[in-house]
Every structure is written in C-alpha cells, then in structure tokens.
Amino acid sequence: MFSAWELILQQLVNGLILGSFYALVALGYSMVYGIIKLLNFAHGDIYMTGAFICLSVYGAVSGVLPGWTGIAVSVLAAMAVSGLLGFLAQKFAYRPLLSAPRLSLLITAIGVSLVISNTVMVITKSQPLFFTSGLDNSLGIKFGSITVTYIQIIMLAVSAILMISLTLFINRTMMGKAMRAIALDQDTCALVGINVNKIIGLTFVLGSALAAIAGGMACVYYGNVQYNMGYMIGIKAFTAAVIGGIGSVPGAMLGGILLGLLEALGTQFLGSSWKDVFAFGLLILILILRPNGLLGRSEIERM
Amino acid sequence: MPNDTPLIKVEGLEACYGKVAALGGISFEVREGQIVTLLGSNGAGKSTTLRAISGLLAPSAGRVFFCGEEITKMPPHEIVKRGLAHLPEGRHIFKDLTVLENLELGSYTLKDNNERKRRLNRVFERFPILSKRMKQAGGTLSGGEQQMLAIGRGLMASPKLLLMDEPSMGIAPLIVRDITNIIKTLHDDGTTILLVEQNAKMALGLADYGYVLDTGSIVLEGVGSELLKDEKVVKAYLGG
After folding, report:
1. Residue A187 and residue B56: Cβ atoms within 8 Å?
2. Tens-digit pLDDT profile for residues B36-81
3. B139 to chain A: which residues are within 8 Å by CB?
4. What ipTM goes with this model?
C-alpha cells in the first residue's frame, strides 16, 4: 500500500510532467498572441506534427542510434520540421491577413489546423502509431515504494532548461527585447530599425519548436501518436495561457504547470473522469478573481 | 558627401489614406546642420510627410532622397540603418519595457555592444534623469521625461537626421522650454533636424528655414525669422 505522502509525491511528479507539456505548448500560444493578437488554433497540430516527425525519424535512426541519442536526433528533426511549418503558416496564411479583422485570422488558423491534422490523418490512415523507445522505464530514484523514473527526471530537467533559456532570451538579448517591444507597438519598432516581419517569423519558429519538443516528449512518455492528439492539448494549453495571462511568457509557464498539477490532484482525489471538471472549475474561479490571468496585465492604459 | 547635396530631398511627394488624399505633391529639402520646420494646422499633412519619408507609409507618387540615395520604397528598418531617426508624435515609449531597454532598442541595428554602451553614456550625460530612472518601466515616467526618453532613443541610432513630430505636444508649458533647449543643444552639436510643430512660435524661433503646409500642399516658405514676421503666418498660426 502507498502511504499518503508517497501518493502526493507521485501525483506531484505526474502533475509536473503534464504541466511541462502544457507549459511548452502554451508558450507558443502566448508568444504569438502577444505579438500579433492571434489565437493560433493550429498550434496543437504543430505539436502533433512534432510528435509524428519524432516517431518517424526515431523509427529510421533507432537501429543505429538507440536510446537517448536517437531520441535527441529525432526531437531535433521534429523541431526543425515544426519550426518550418509554423514559419510557413505564418508567412503564407497569417501575414497577408495581418491588417484584416482578427476574426478572419482566427478562421484561417482553424483552417490551417484542419489542413495539418487531415494531412497526417491521410498519411497514417487514421491509425494510431506506436512508439517504442527501448528505454528502461523501471530505472529511477526510489522514494519508498514510489519510483521517479530517469525518463521523468530528464523530461522535467529538459523542460526547466528550455523555460529558463527562453526567459533569458526574451529578457537579455536584443531580439528578445524586440519581441516584447513588437507586442507593444509595431510601428515604433520599425522606426528604431527592427525588421518586424522577421521577428514575428522568429516568434512562430520558436513557439513551434517548443511545441515540437513537447510532442517528442509525449512520444516517449505515452508511446503513441495520433493525428487528432493536438486538439485536446491545444485547448488545454490555450487554457493554461489564459490562466497565466495570455501574452505573458512567465504566465504561460505558470499556467501550464498549475493546470498539470490541478489535473493530477483531481485524478487523485476525484478520479480521472472528474479531473477536467476539477481543474477547469478551479480555473474558472481564478479567472473570476483575476480576469487578466495570474500574470497578465490589465488593458487599461495610462495616457 | 559634397556640400551641395541636401541631406534629405523630397520631390513631388503624394500620399493618401484609402481614397482620401493627404499630400498633394510637395517638394522641399533639408541641408546638413539645419533645423527645418514644417508648420501647419491639424490635418495639413505634416505627420503624413514624416511617415512617408521614414517608410511607415508608402507614398503614392514622388521620390525621397537621403544623402543622395533614393529611399522611397525602402522599409523603415532599412532607412533607419542609413542614419535617419523618426521620433513619432505622442512619444511612443515602449511602456512595459524599462528605460534602459527602450534606449537599447534605439540602437537595434547596431551590432557593436561597446559602441552601444558609449552611446548610452552620451544619452545619460545629456539626460541625467534617464540614468536615475534606468530600471523603471518607460510608462511610469512623466510626459516630459518620456519625451527625453523618446529623444534619447532616437539619438541611440546616432542619426544624421532627426525627424521630430510635435515634441511639445501634451507637455506642460514649463517643460516645453526644456524641450526647446534640448533641440537647440542637439542643433549646436551638429544634428540636422526636420521639426514638425503646431507650436509655430517655438518652431520658428528654432528653425533656419520653414515651410507652411495647408491641406497637403506647401503654401509658403522662407527663413525662420522672416516667417515669424509674415502677416499670413502670424494671422493663421500665431493668433495675431
């Protein structure tokens, strides 16, 4: 039998892992919203594409490069493909509509989402694909009768490193500062010499690459990939971004982790069929108390 | 650059917003070391002229030359690189970014970090208040301080030409005098300035040469001190 603290530790780890997926995907949602006020509903499908590419590439390279090396190579390939896909969607689907009403942009995003998921549906003939990493999922650090596996530890470490790096990039580099400035005032950015389109493109590439990493980790963690797997995580990540304060990078991280933890706790105390009710119920409560999200800023402007 | 090439030369510039014509073919030039002012009432086309020069607005006809090079169809970030900084009306500080970040972005096209630091120090020497407020969000500064920040951000590009759009707008009357002095100092240090103002008295007091715009056309031009005495100008813009 598990003791109470062992159960809490177990759910904490589960929640953090789930939360890392949400956070990595929510970052792309939030950055894109921050910079061009678009709810990019195709973002979940970019994540799915990442998972799909990771699985396909690993299938090809695992004979030569088994284990973590092969997975790393596959995730890098997934980042490249998803990043390119995000860039192309931005360049050909969204950019021509940047001065159109936001609703046109939103509908275009839904269209891009359908194009991507249906393409993968056709390729996979609607069948789920299975991923065998060959990693030993029983190795790890034991806490009483609970094992936190090395896979889990590595995934959490990778997520943490990614989020820290992104935070440094946004706050310390000229490009990161330009990204934050574009979210505030595009014309003035152009006047100080920022190539606005280039930075918007970069934002899509970054967000998509992060989603692809989450997709690759989902491959390893869940072991299967399906063309419609982006839908639910898209909604969850969007929720996480809103909870944290859409447009805010630390907000997306916080919202994602929080949502993951709430779901894990909900599963523990109410059972898995009630976890979404529990998590979303609490999230509604948060939004009633803080309509702009936990770290979002109010839209009231000082003149 | 030979001395007879104007720093900026505008030829037959036309612009429109949708179907509404805003500029009906204006021509003028600014020579190195000058302060030139564009005067005119609201809607005369002053800001439109600056936006068309800096590339924010695509002109529908006409040409713009900067240091002899045509820049008419260039995107704004390419024009900035050549040494033209446009300080838009209303200051447009990045309000959530710190004062320091605002200034750094002013030198975005610069790759050399040491040069960036040198320019920062020069801006801080000119505006010591900005160095005190370095870590504060730009939006928390007062109107006058924001105007200094906007000017400082423009100077970070080390521009050959500064386009200033209504630097006195929305600023307390006492501070307008400070802004006037700042523009004078910039001029004394050799910066060429194209100044757009509704405050004609201030602008003509500073300018070497002035153009008066009315509904998209230049209706009058002359040496600053003479325009200041011109009956029509006095009547229309100085409340005489």
Report:
1. yes
2. 999 988 888 999 999 999 999 999 999 999 999 999 989 999 999 9
3. 302
4. 0.92
